[in-house]
Amino acid sequence: MKATWNNEVIAESDETIEIEGNQYFPPSSVKMELLEKTDHTSVCVWKGLAHYYTVVVNGERNENAAWYYPEPKDGSIEKVGKDFTNYVAFWNGVQVSA
After folding, report:
1. Which fold has domain 2-97?
2. Of 33, 34, 21, 17, which Cα lies nearest the Cα of 80?
3. E-strand stretches of the chain
4. Nearest-CA neighbor of 79 among 46, 43, 42, 44?
5. What is the pLDDT of residues 80-91, one digit of tens each?
6. What is the number of alpha carbons within 13 Å of residue 27 lying toward its C-beta?
7. Residues 6+ away with beta carbon under 8 Å from 11
8. What H or E segment, with its residue span, contains residue 78?
């Protein structure tokens, strides 16, 4: 799987985890230099508190276009079947493809 935005590959991995139709990339497969932490959060009733990154490529910013769960809610890892702690998912125009 590959995540791209603004003609730049942000993440690439054969070991993503699919959760609710979204591909979550292992942290080691993500170009963290293209991401900036934000203060934005959201809550999933079963995964817990999500934190966000802004994607920055070639001087352009895609606000809160990536999210991750630093501390997944109890029982959520068992429900998914794999530990997705700090795995990164994308949206808001970031293309994710095989």
Report:
1. 2.170.150
2. 17
3. 2-5, 8-12, 17-19, 22-24, 35-44, 48-57, 60-68, 88-90, 95-97
4. 46
5. 999 999 999 999
6. 9
7. 1, 2, 3, 25, 29, 30, 31, 88, 90
8. helix 76-80
User: What's the CA gap between 70 and 32, in Å, rounded?
Assistant: 15
- The predicted pLDDT at position 89 comes to 98
In sequence order, the β-bridge partners of residue 60 are: 57
Contact (Cβ atoms closer than 8 angstroms) between residue 38 and residue 52 = yes
pLDDT of residue 42: 98
Residues pairing with 41 in the sheet? 51
What letter represents residue 15's amino acid? E
pTM: 0.96
**What is the Cα 79 distance to its own chain's centre?**
18
Report the candidate in 60, 51, 62 with the shortest Cα–Cα distance to residue 92: 62
- The token pair that represents 80 in the structure block: 């998914």
